[in-house]
């Protein structure tokens, strides 16, 4: 791999991922939607809005011109909010190298279509599915920026491309594993955001470890049910892209979906929680899409259903807890 890498999106994870790539020996150009962010990265090698303590390596630069970032890139990393992907990618596709590997860092399900992010990429960019690679795992950006040891999963159907991306992001502090279960890795990343919202709500309501452990384990169970219905390998959900990501997103105060849930659990409205959190909590919109996806495949996802009701239909979190606890008993 000799060309530069484009990272489209200058949020916390896009910025941290650019650091990983540079530390692994790649030249990286970040595209930032807002010119001041690109200017600061270029002039100071900092992105103080998202990762204030990080000084980026010299191999990282930035631009507000997506075409400039993409042109000639062998690997194009997509790190924008999931619900904005389709519109952005429609504008970017004409600049892609004919054989570029497209890497998705996004953890969401598209509203309206209920498509996974790799499916949106294939459809919008008009590329073969084997050109898309998904990176998913317990990857909290501030910890990775501080070079704390972490691991992730690089999932794709083309072993050459997954190995290429694996090599491009292997550093002393970041350890990637390959996997061919794209469906399972994407669903694990998307649904854990919804479960983390529930975990945050429960935490803010004063519930203890028993309740939170119940949400993690039963949340994983409903994630796996949906995954199996869509053809995923159930073992994926026991790994980094499943249980690993879920534990990190639920247990860490840094995790934006958990934090968003805590605001809701303290009685904030959806808009108040959004303003307080300041970053995109993907689980809020994905809850609607995941609920629709589950219903279309006849899969019960009671935690997801209640999170959707709290977020979008104004249901009191206490009533949501009552609804979960009063469901008909059944075998585990």
Automatic annotation (TrEMBL):
Q: Spell out the catalytic residues.
A: 192
MF (Gene Ontology): glycerol-3-phosphate dehydrogenase (NAD+) activity; glycerol-3-phosphate dehydrogenase (NADP+) activity; NAD binding
> What InterPro entries would the database entry show?
6-PGluconate_DH-like_C_sf (IPR008927), 6PGD_dom2 (IPR013328), G3P_DH_NAD-dep (IPR006168), G3P_DH_NAD-dep_C (IPR006109), G3P_DH_NAD-dep_N (IPR011128), NAD(P)-bd_dom_sf (IPR036291)
Catalytic activity, per the record?
Answer: sn-glycerol 3-phosphate + NADP(+) = dihydroxyacetone phosphate + NADPH + H(+); sn-glycerol 3-phosphate + NAD(+) = dihydroxyacetone phosphate + NADH + H(+)
An example Gene Ontology biological process: carbohydrate metabolic process
Q: Tell me the first and last residues of the signal peptide.
A: none
The record places domain Glycerol-3-phosphate dehydrogenase NAD-dependent N-terminal at 5-159
The answer to keyword Nucleotide-binding applying to this record is yes
A GO CC term? cytosol
Write out the residues that bind NAD(+): 9-14, 141, 256
State the pathway, as annotated in the record: Membrane lipid metabolism; glycerophospholipid metabolism
**Sequence positions that bind sn-glycerol 3-phosphate:** 107, 137, 192, 245, 256-257
> Pfam families this protein is in?
NAD_Gly3P_dh_C, NAD_Gly3P_dh_N
Q: Where in the cell is it found?
A: Cytoplasm
Residues reported in the UniProt entry to bind substrate: 107, 256-257
Mark the transmembrane ranges. none
Q: Does the keyword Ubl conjugation apply?
A: no
* Keyword list, A-Z: Cytoplasm, Lipid biosynthesis, Lipid metabolism, NAD, NADP, Nucleotide-binding, Oxidoreductase, Phospholipid biosynthesis, Phospholipid metabolism
User: What this chain does, per the record?
Assistant: Catalyzes the reduction of the glycolytic intermediate dihydroxyacetone phosphate (DHAP) to sn-glycerol 3-phosphate (G3P), the key precursor for phospholipid synthesis.
The identity of this protein, by name, is Glycerol-3-phosphate dehydrogenase [NAD(P)+]
Q: Which organism is it from?
A: Micromonospora endolithica
Q: Which gene is this protein's source?
A: gpsA
